Amino acid sequence: MSAKLPSEGRRADASPPLQPTAPAPTPTLLVRGNLQRDLFRLGVVPCAAVALALTGWFTHSRLQTLEAAFDAEGQAVARQVAAMSDLSLYAGDLPALQNVANAALRGGQVMRVEISNSAGVYVTAGPKASSLAQLRMFTSPVTLREASRASAFAPAGSTAAGETPIGLVQTFRDTTAYARERSRSLIASIGIALVALLAAWASVRHMARTVARPLRRVSRTVAALQAGHFEARCDVAEGDSRASTGNSGKGRAHELTVLAHDIDRLAERLQRNRQISEERVREATAVALQRMAEAEQAALSRARFLAAASHDLRQPLHAMGLFIDGLLPGASPAQRPAVLRLQESTEFMGVLLDDLLEISRLDAQVLTPAITKVPLAALFDQLDAQHAATAVETHVRLRWSDRGLAVRSDAALLQRIVGNLVANALRHAPAGGTVLVAARRARGKNGDSVRIEVRDNGIGIAPIHQGRIFEEFYQVANTERDRRRGFGLGLAICARIAALLGTRITVRSALQAGSTFALTLPAAHPAEATAPEPAPMALTPLAGLHCMVVDDDPAILDGSRALLEQWGCQVECVATGAEAIARLGTGDLHFDAVLCDLQLAGDGDGMDVIDAARRLQPDALAVLVSGATGPEVLQRLRHGGVMLLTKPVAPAKLRALLTTRRHAHAA
């Protein structure tokens, strides 16, 4: 019986290699996370689970077989000894019992035999083990055999001889060999499982690499296409994938190859489309550059035209204003209305030219704002004094709310912006309406700010017009171009001044709901804000002031002479720059003011006269009077630090300048 055990163990150990190791093909195309790791996990885990399950089942069966065989052999020996010792034990034949026990030991199945009964018979054979942990005991009762009595002739009610045990046989087997065989079976099972897992790991790793390699190329190609490198290609050959995967990978390799070829065709199409797009972009860029150059040339031509037209218009307008102002005191009652109308028309033309000059100066960036701390209370007081009469005349309530705030800005430029917004609000507010100029704190990008708002409850501005109200000459409700309602340049100038101050004007309006114009400026501490400069001193007579007028226009010379002499000045008119410089350098003549045109006859330049006046008579007030408003001229005058009066010069402005000179001379 024991000879069969090794063969049974070999049959049980030979079964694990029959387990399946092929991975499922469907999950190999998953691309979540690391593709090769996912493919490896999806291939190895099922194989490992199946291998471990089969190995555990076969190992458990093998160990149960060993256990059953070991117990069966020990129990068989015990029954055999009990069957051979029944008569000897019944007769009390101790030598015979000893021979039976010794014969059982010679078979090698057990290492100790004990035969005993209740009458005190006790026979042993074999050494007594010191440790019972290595022994397993098997017992069998000793009964008399049925052949020892004639059971067929026994009377009714008698007891059979073999039914009652007459003794007990105990055999002991050593479990060392059994434990060794059990350990060998476990080690063999574990080895087979490891070999199966290693084979599965190698196979799945090879297939994962085979599948992941072309997919990596496809992924890199897609990434390159996304980055704009349309020349990238997958370069995946069908033969390479099929050779790596074998027959089981033919379908998968074919699908990967088709995918790679589709990506390559897509890349080729994208490359062609990009080439076409680049060609179209180059053509469009060339057209745009050409049109931009044409627009710039047109803008330069327009600027030159406007500069020349402005100068040519300012010359006669300046002379006209001088003559009209000189004629007004001596006009008869019948002539006075006509002279006043001429003066009004001249003033309107002067305002228009001044606005054009202002826009030209802002576009030429020749203005540098003087940033100071401006208290809004003082600013609003000045604006209220300026617009209160208009508000009363139009029956509009003009309200101010400064809240004690101050801002960091240029006081004059800020007054120009807010004043223009207030004038527009008064012009469009209905009779009985309200115009509110309010300041409040706001949170800006660079810290605390102050938001100045000008609100009215007028007719409002339609959304279609709100994007164009800051354009030059654009007026919503002045289609007839009534000059008394402005020229459409005020908001354009305010927008440019706001940009110069580092802010912008916003508008919020709706039809029949009024309008709100606002701008945001950096906040200043009210206690540190400086008060505005006091108003200039009252004009004083100019009698005795010696003036030189340099201009190549006889009309301007005549008009200037008449006006200045009417003010009591001593006037000397010069037509050329050379003559003016000569008179300044004689040393006999002292001039208090030199008024010189910029563009003189021939190649004469008024800047030369101004420089000579500064050098030869430094105490004289040197003023350049010109109608040129081009950006280049304004930049030149700014760099030279020359005081400029733009034609046409209002007589009041000229008188104020000369009065300031008289005060300085008197001091």
UniProtKB/TrEMBL annotation:
Membrane-spanning ranges: 39-58, 186-204
The Response regulatory domain, residue ranges? 546-662
Listed InterPro entries: CheY-like_superfamily, HAMP_dom, HATPase_C_sf, HATPase_dom, His_kinase_dom, HisK_dim/P_dom, HisK_dim/P_sf, Sig_transdc_His_kin-like_C
Q: Where is the Histidine kinase domain positioned along the sequence?
A: 308-525
Q: What is its main location?
A: membrane
Keywords on record: Kinase, Membrane, Phosphoprotein, Transferase, Transmembrane, Transmembrane helix
Q: Which residues carry this modification: 4-aspartylphosphate?
A: D597
- Indicate, by first and last residue, each region the UniProt record lists as having compositional bias (Pro residues): 17-26
Q: Where in the cell is it found?
A: Membrane
- Kindly indicate whether the keyword Kinase belongs to this entry: yes
GO MF, any single term:
phosphorelay sensor kinase activity
* UniProt-listed PANTHER family: HISTIDINE KINASE, TWO-COMPONENT HISTIDINE PROTEIN KINASE
Q: Indicate what this protein is called per its UniProt record.
A: histidine kinase
Task: Provide the species name.
Answer: Variovorax paradoxus
Lineage of the native species? Bacteria, Pseudomonadati, Pseudomonadota, Betaproteobacteria, Burkholderiales
Tell me the name of the encoding gene: torS2
